[in-house]
Specification:
The chain is built from no helices and eleven strands. The protein is mainly beta.
């Protein structure tokens, strides 16, 4: 079993920055992938970024490249999502998720259905 707890969300003005954290506990293995998703009101949950826990390969949605940065701290079992130049359209609940199965293609990292464990989410609200 894997437990994920997000933190770091809040209310911020457009142009500002936030760093979200996802603390991982329970069974931890070196081969899994940590993903970040977001869900805005009335919209589907969408992929934002992912990082492989073992060697740190990173994957981003095209819509966030250049503003979002995903990273990890193995010693703290924590994954981060740095969001810069925030826009009102970034307003959403941000979720971290753990993918513990092995897939032959990284395309599966972009699909919410591939993930096995989810956190409770953290709200990010960007005012204009």
């Amino acid at each position: 079993q894997v437990q994920l707890v997000e933190s770091g969300g809040g209310l911020v003005q457009a142009g500002g920055s936030l760093r979200l954290s996802c603390a991982v506990s329970g069974r931890t293995f070196g081969y899994y992938v940590m993903g970040w998703f977001r869900q805005a009101p009335g919209k589907e949950r969408e992929f934002v970024a992912a990082i492989r826990w073992s060697e740190g390969s990173i994957f981003y949605a095209d819509s966030v490249k250049g503003r979002f940065t995903v990273s990890k701290d193995n010693a703290k079992n924590t994954v981060y999502l740095q969001i810069d130049s925030l826009k009102p359209e970034d307003t959403a609940v941000y979720y971290c998720a753990a993918l513990v199965k092995t897939y032959s293609s990284s395309l599966y990292y972009y699909r919410k259905g591939s993930y096995d464990y989810w956190g409770q989410g953290t709200q990010v609200t960007v005012s204009s």
